[in-house]
UniProtKB/TrEMBL annotation:
GO cellular component terms attached to this protein's record: ESCRT II complex
One annotated GO biological process: macroautophagy
UniProt keyword Protein transport present: yes
Xref: InterPro entries: ESCRT-II_cplx_Vps25-sub, ESCRT-II_cplx_Vps25-sub_N, WH-like_DNA-bd_sf, WH_DNA-bd_sf
An example Gene Ontology molecular-function term: structural molecule activity
UniProt keywords, alphabetically: Protein transport, Transport
Protein name stated in the entry: Vacuolar protein-sorting-associated protein 25
Source superkingdom: Eukaryota
């Protein structure tokens, strides 16, 4: 896991307590949104299971003995809004620092620049293959990858296929 540069407020106990003053609370929520997006991008993580969040160093600052989970449900609605790059499904938050459309565009640009239009790739090749190691989409969560590829399908630039028990994609 990559080293995390925590912002100053991470070690400030009130940061882990919902602030009663609305203007301060709005700033607090924006700071948490930014921290969450930065943390997940830095650690190349894409999914947060709410049930396990209290064990994450992101929400559990042992240094000051504070856990955001104590106020998580009160805080969740304004904190995790889709506009900020976060999406919720079945106790799992999908963290987007790029939208599925942006991931799809990145992948398609890579396909074009490597002369792979009209070829088939497995999902594994795209996110775990030797040829994509230096790409930002390397290690991308498979569910998020499929969302990105579906955006390309809608634009008629790709077709998700099944072959030999594997999922793949043909780029058009």
């Amino acid at each position: 896991m990559a080293e995390v540069d925590w912002p100053w407020q991470y070690d400030f106990p009130p940061f882990f307590t919902i602030q009663p003053h609305l203007e301060t609370q709005n700033k607090q929520i924006k700071a948490w949104q930014s921290l969450i997006l930065d943390y997940f991008k830095n650690t190349k993580s894409y999914v947060l299971d709410v049930r396990e969040s209290q064990n994450s160093p992101l929400f559990n600052n042992a240094k000051i003995n504070r856990i955001l989970f104590d106020i998580f449900h009160e805080f969740a609605e304004p904190l995790f809004i889709c506009k900020s790059g976060l999406s919720f499904y079945n106790n799992r938050w999908y963290i987007y620092w790029h939208t599925p459309e942006e991931w799809g565009s990145m992948i398609y640009e890579w396909i074009q620049s490597n002369g792979m239009v009209n070829t088939v790739c497995t999902l594994y090749e795209l996110v775990s293959g030797d040829n994509t190691v230096g790409e930002e989409f390397y290690g991308l969560d498979v569910d998020l990858l499929l969302k990105a590829l579906r955006t390309l399908e809608h634009k008629k630039k790709a077709e998700i296929i099944m072959f030999d028990g594997n999922e793949g994609v043909k780029f058009l």
